[in-house]
UniProtKB/TrEMBL annotation:
<keyword id="KW-0067">ATP-binding</keyword>
<dbReference type="GO" id="GO:0015807">
    <property type="term" value="P:L-amino acid transport"/>
</dbReference>
<dbReference type="Pfam" id="PF00005">
    <property type="entry name" value="ABC_tran"/>
</dbReference>
<dbReference type="InterPro" id="IPR027417">
    <property type="entry name" value="P-loop_NTPase"/>
</dbReference>
<dbReference type="InterPro" id="IPR003593">
    <property type="entry name" value="AAA+_ATPase"/>
</dbReference>
<dbReference type="GO" id="GO:0016887">
    <property type="term" value="F:ATP hydrolysis activity"/>
</dbReference>
<protein>
    <submittedName>
        <fullName>Putative ABC transporter ATP-binding protein</fullName>
    </submittedName>
</protein>
<comment type="similarity">
    <text>Belongs to the ABC transporter superfamily.</text>
</comment>
<dbReference type="InterPro" id="IPR052156">
    <property type="entry name" value="BCAA_Transport_ATP-bd_LivF"/>
</dbReference>
<dbReference type="GO" id="GO:0005524">
    <property type="term" value="F:ATP binding"/>
</dbReference>
<keyword id="KW-0813">Transport</keyword>
<dbReference type="InterPro" id="IPR003439">
    <property type="entry name" value="ABC_transporter-like_ATP-bd"/>
</dbReference>
<keyword id="KW-0029">Amino-acid transport</keyword>
<keyword id="KW-0547">Nucleotide-binding</keyword>
<feature type="domain" description="ABC transporter">
    <location>
        <begin position="3"/>
        <end position="230"/>
    </location>
</feature>
<dbReference type="GO" id="GO:0015658">
    <property type="term" value="F:branched-chain amino acid transmembrane transporter activity"/>
</dbReference>
<dbReference type="InterPro" id="IPR017871">
    <property type="entry name" value="ABC_transporter-like_CS"/>
</dbReference>
Length: 237
């Protein structure tokens, strides 16, 4: 078991947004965390990364309970966040960004070139001058060189054309398969997320409304629609 979340209460200040969340993501598995705007997905990701203190519950990696609200220790325990704003240093080149984050045993620069050939051509270019898709590749690459045990990817598709996301998400699947990293993926492109995930959890107003293997869910299923919008939202006939 790589990541275990028990009865997590997460929120901003003292106001809980998510209550009693349980999650388990094993090594090499991809969990899609889905849900409408404002459901609390980013709040969960920031809390798991230690950037927001927990208001309750526990989070453990390989059995080791993580401290609350301590992003440095959480990161050294192997939890690495790719935030939705990518948080790159615009003045650093691709090469510099990766060198500064490289950890022993992490994916090497050569492997990054294989995974993201588009970055190879931009190796000496500053992050701030990359396209949105290239920046997203760099944000994921920067996470990979840190040898994550748990990779948290928040809205990889933010601001990107679907065709770019279609190319990036299978790479996430490959990473989980080849490195054994446990991945939580927050993604608005539900169909694309279900293609690469093992399991999907739908969060609405901070509560889990559906938990299924990704295989059994299709993006346009009634079950998924109800989990997002509830039975009351059925269109009148
Ligand atoms: N910095 C903040 N301070 C106070 N409340 C916040 C803050 N950030 C988010 N919230 C509130 O927390 C709730 C959940 O927001 P969150 O961003 O986690 O949802 P989300 O599921 O990631 O939504 P989206 O898909 O739109 O990104 C919302 O009601 C939001 O208004």
């Amino acid at each position: 078991m790589s990541l275990r979340v028990d009865q997590l209460v997460a929120g901003h200040g003292k106001v809980p947004v998510v209550r009693g969340l349980d999650l388990e993501v094993e090594s090499g598995k991809v969990l899609a965390l889905l849900g409408p705007n404002g459901a609390g997905k980013t709040t969960v990701m920031l809390t798991l990364a230690g950037l927001l203190p927990r208001l309750g519950g526990s989070v453990s990696v390989n059995g080791q309970v993580l401290p609350s609200g301590n992003p440095g220790k959480t990161n050294s325990s192997g939890v690495v966040l790719v935030p939705d704003n990518r948080a790159l240093f615009g003045g650093l080149t691709v090469a510099e960004t990766l060198t500064l984050s490289q950890r022993k045993g992490g994916v090497t620069a050569d492997q990054i070139r294989d995974l993201f050939p588009a970055l190879t051509k931009r190796w000496k270019v500053k992050a701030g001058a990359l396209s949105g898709g290239e920046q997203q590749m760099l944000a994921v690459a920067r996470a990979l060189v840190q040898k994550p045990a748990v990779l948290l990817i928040d809205e990889m598709s933010m601001g990107l054309a679907p065709v770019i996301v279609e190319g990036l998400l299978p790479i996430v699947r490959d990473i989980a398969d080849s490195t054994g990293t446990a991945v939580i993926l927050v993604e608005q492109h539900v169909a694309l997320a279900l293609e690469v995930a093992d399991e999907a959890v739908v969060l609405v107003h901070g509560e889990v409304t559906l938990r299924r293997s990704a295989d059994t869910l299709t993006a346009d299923s009634e079950e998924l629609r109800q989990a997002y919008f509830g039975k009351a939202a059925q269109p009148a006939r």
